Amino acid sequence: MIEHLQESRGPAFGFAVRGKLTAEDTTGLLAKLDTMIGDYKKPIGVLADLTRMEGADWTARWNEMRFLERHTSQIARLAIVGAYNWEEIASMVLVATAALQAQTRYYQSSELSHAWHWVKMLKHDEETPVRIMYPGHGLFQDYTPEYMGI
């Protein structure tokens, strides 16, 4: 089940996942995000509270990856909030965010207010505790083809 968080306003959208994430859950969420992205001409910030998430089915993951692929330039910041070690969360989310150009940061559940602050701000506040998961440069930014002469 996905819950839209009331703190969402302006160019910041937040949601919490409870239980196992299903394809049906992602359909409604992604439609809301599509609408929000259409309303704002500048990139938005997204907060995903995964504190009570208990996994996801493959179709839900596929929907998420396809959405991120379509909107890679419209999402500037992605804050992941969780109760697990950030390394465990990274293994769950990094596959989907690898193609995303957004900065991705992890916050513990006790740091929820810091996550909201960062998602809503245009610049990074150096006082906020941060665990950078992905710097937001695009998956193939530094890629150089090896076999161009073949």
From TrEMBL:
- List, alphabetically, the InterPro entries matched: SpoIIAA-like, SpoIIAA-like_sf, STAS_dom_sf
The record ties this protein, via Gene3D superfamilies, to: SpoIIaa-like domains
* Protein name as annotated: SpoIIAA-like protein
Domain of life, source organism: Bacteria
Q: Which SUPFAM superfamilies match?
A: SpoIIaa-like
